[in-house]
Amino acid sequence: MPKRVLEGIVVSDKQDKTVVVKVERRFTHPLLKKTVRRTKNYHAHDEGNAFKTGDVVSIEEGKPLSKLKRWVVLPKA
């Protein structure tokens, strides 16, 4: 099964080797037929502390690294 890859914006880089990434998804509301935006924050592993607040990053599913971290930041292409 392929690993999910999401794209979002770094909202916090205060922790060591961890960034918090805000991912936005858009969908059509089933009843109102209106586009709705929902956001969710993911804690992701950033081995080299390379990413700062405001950076656009891609994150990939990985093994559990801590209580909250199950995602890894992909290196810049």
UniProtKB/TrEMBL annotation:
Pfam families: Ribosomal_S17. Keywords: Ribonucleoprotein, Ribosomal protein, RNA-binding, rRNA-binding. One of its GO terms (cellular component) is cytosolic small ribosomal subunit. PROSITE patterns: RIBOSOMAL_S17 (PS00056). InterPro entries: NA-bd_OB-fold, Ribosomal_uS17, Ribosomal_uS17_bact/chlr, Ribosomal_uS17_CS. The keyword Mitochondrion does not apply. GO terms for molecular function: rRNA binding; structural constituent of ribosome. It comes from the Bacteria. GO terms for biological process: translation. PANTHER family: 40S RIBOSOMAL PROTEIN S11 FAMILY MEMBER, SMALL RIBOSOMAL SUBUNIT PROTEIN US17M. Belongs to the universal ribosomal protein uS17 family. One of the primary rRNA binding proteins, it binds specifically to the 5'-end of 16S ribosomal RNA. Part of the 30S ribosomal subunit. This is Small ribosomal subunit protein uS17.
